[in-house]
Amino acid sequence: MKKRVVIVGGGYAGVRAAETFAKYHRKDLEILVIDHHTYHYLQTESYNFVASRISLEKTFIYLPTLIASFGNNFRFVNDEALRVEGDKLICKKESCHFDYLIIATGSVTRFLQGFENKGEFSLGVKSLRGALNVKEFFERELFDRLEAERARKNFNIVVIGGGLSGVEIAAEMRDYFNRYAKTNALSCGNVHIKLVSKFILEGQDRKIAKKVEERLKKLGVEIVRAFVDRVEDHRADLDNGESVKFDFAIFAGGIEPSPFIKGLSFEKDRRGFLKVDEFLRADDRVFAAGDAASLFDKEGKFVPPTAQSAEQSGEFAAKNIMALIDGRNLERADIKLRGLAIALGGRCALVVTPFGFNIYSVFGWLIKKGVEQFYKCPLKMKARRGYKLMSPCERV
């Protein structure tokens, strides 16, 4: 009798889990990948997309064709998971039984009070739709600045959050405006970008943070050392009693669990993410991976939510489910971050290696591009293969 494994979420963790199951070539498995989106958003390239360096089709992998490439016993279901009841996953359209479940629903942007309802003038970039809206907004602004009267006016952009996403967005947007002005011999001197955060790349080595700050200032990004308490209409109130006015704000701050995670009865940490054991189990037959889970390495050190940790945890979850099916011992998850690549505007990046040295400037950029292509290209090829395997009616 076939064992049914349901994977909720088609992000970095969910895709890697499906890929791992496919490597076993087991016909006694039925794998369902469920997501309310039909695409795997390449969030690590959001900075490229917002800054118009890549087009829309290069920011996602189409899930139906990708999952079809793994075999006849793999199926993608476009549905929204609502809750878990025993061995059944309840979704908006229909429910399904599972023998094993992997929860890989990722996280969502944790908006500040007053931020989430501003809509037109303040957005996050964690979702593809959000990134698209930011990109379109800035392109409209650049077009409007072709008029002399508009070009003379100040335009203030605030990026809230000094983590990796905030740094990359601020750097790429500043480089974007600099490049636009230089290419078209126009003045964008009245476009101001402020990165608001008390810390830049908190948790990283101070030398790395200093190098990043130097690059941001060289590009023309102003760093405001404060936390944002709340956002009013076109104004961010800071914890030091001051305020920063803006025409447009990009939120790149904290994250919180998806609504699906919030509704589950499994044990959670203080932030609301799922607690898992050393084998990534939230329950006997339920595993959690990626941002959905609170992950730690073998030494008990917290592992930050990144694409790397999501991929590794997805793979470990799949391997341990196979171990349970085959009656083998489970493997303790050993999640390690193998360096960090930070885009710093234009052909400049800082690559932090696990070998004790860093690579900066165009050489770092080439490595970062290589890593992105190394992940994306094989998935694109598999999706194309999956398209050929699907019947004409399935391609719709």
CATH homologous superfamily annotation of the largest domain: FAD/NAD(P)-binding domain
Report the principal-axis shape. globular
Number of helices: 10
What CATH calls the topology of the largest domain is FAD/NAD(P)-binding domain
Estimated structural class = alpha/beta
CATH architecture call of the largest domain? 3-Layer(bba) Sandwich
* Mean pLDDT across residues: 90
Cα-based radius of gyration, to the nearest Å: 22 Å
The main sheet orders its strands as: 5-2-1-9-22-21
* CATH domain class name of the largest domain: Alpha Beta
Number of strands: 26
Biggest sheet features = 6 strands, mixed
Q: What number of structural domains do the residues give? A: 2
Give the helix level as a range of percent.
25-40%
Low-confidence stretches: none
- Report the span from N to C terminus: 31 Å
Share of residues in strands: 25-35%
Descriptive labels:
single chain, 396 residues, alpha/beta, FAD/NAD(P)-binding domain, 2 domains, 10 helices, 26 strands
Short summary of the structure?
The protein is an alpha/beta fold and 396 residues long.
Structural features, described:
The protein is 33% helix and 25% strand. The protein has helices spanning 12-24, 46-50, 63-68, 128-144, 148-151, 164-184, 206-219, 259-262, 307-326, 362-389; strands at residues 3-8, 29-35, 39-41, 60-62, 74-78, 81-85, 88-91, 95-97, 100-103, 107-109, 122-124, 155-160, 191-196, 222-224, 228-232, 235-238, 243-245, 248-251, 255-257, 274-275, 281-283, 286-288, 293-294, 340-343, 349-352, 358-359. The strands form 8 sheets. Strands 5-2-1-9-22-21 form a 6-stranded mixed β-sheet. Strands 11-18-12-13-14 form a 5-stranded parallel β-sheet, covered by helices on one side. A 3-stranded antiparallel β-sheet has the order 6-7-8. Strand 13, helix 7 and strand 14 (222-224) form a beta-alpha-beta unit. The mean pLDDT is 90.
